[in-house]
Amino acid sequence: MSTAPIRLHRFALSGHAHRVQLFLSLLGLPHEIVEVDLARGEHKQPGFLAKNPFGQVPVIEDGALTLADSNAILVYLASRYDDSGRWLPRTPEGAAEVQRWLSVAAGQLAAGPATARVEVLFNRPRDPKRHEIAKQLFTLMEAHLAAQPFLAGAAPTIADIAMYTYTAHAPEGGVSLQPYPQLRAWLARIEALPGFVGMTRRPDASPLTD
Ligand SMILES: N[C@@H](CCC(=O)N[C@@H](CS)C(=O)NCC(=O)O)C(=O)O
Predict the structure, then answer these.
(1) Residues 199, 192: contact at Cβ < 8 Å?
(2) Which region holds residue 113: left if phi is over 0, alpha if psi is between -120 and 50, else beta?
(3) What distance in angstroms lies between residue 180's CA and the mean position of ligand 1's atoms?
């Protein structure tokens, strides 16, 4: 384990990178942020590809370890730095329940609200399917969160961290959160956690409350 700050390579508008920044902050881990200029293609240059051959942010460097992929990084940080096991339960059932939501974060959340947001922010062609996926996902989460305060049970875990950013920022992609009061209450519970830090937003972005 290193005593130097963890370096987070990120792009300020990347929700995948933000989920890592949020968790570093919630854990109170010293870290420094290295901006990767996606607009100028820095992530496809040899220096960055040496850290992540997939050419994507986020990447962390923790001492001798270089690690890419937001969900892999959440698992690493929880396993290494959270002695309580609170953020990534160690029971087979608890760990599996968290993994279920990490899969949703890499699946429906990325394909639905996250991609709808990218289409708007970067002026790309709009695919209505993104909104259909988002609505299906948020309807399911609304019912799930009516029965329990956090995605994997009574306490926050990395499942919530992985799912937070692109849900909170869905209105930037034209996906309203108004029909989902349980979802909005869950977002507020995460935002109330000590150490919470939000994602940078473009000054011209649409409001998060819609
Ligand atoms: N599975 C990856 C996805 C990361 C990802 O999609 N990063 C985007 C920014 S949000 C990126 O770097 N895109 C640039 C590219 O793919 O060329 C993770 O969870 O970290």
Answers:
(1) no
(2) alpha
(3) 27
- Ligand 1 contacts CB of residue 71 (under 6 A): yes
Torsion angle of alpha carbons 152, 156, 161, 163, nearest 10°?
40
Return d(Cα 36, Cα 33) in angstroms, integer.
Answer: 9
Q: Is 165 close to ligand 1, i.e. is its CB under 6 Å away?
A: no
The residue nearest atom 1 of ligand 1, judged by CA position, is 69
207: region left, alpha or beta (phi > 0 left; psi from -120 to 50 alpha): beta
Between CA 94 and CA 34 the distance in angstroms is 33
In the sheet with 31-35, reading across from the earlier edge strand, the strands are 31-35, 6-10, 59-62, 65-68
CA-nearest residue, atom 9 of ligand 1: 14
Question: What is the average pLDDT across 92-110?
Answer: 98
Q: Is 56 in the pocket of ligand 1 (CB under 6 A)?
A: yes
Provide the pLDDT for residue 207. Answer: 59
Over the stretch 133-161, which tens digit does the pLDDT of each residue have?
Answer: 999 999 999 999 999 999 999 999 999 99
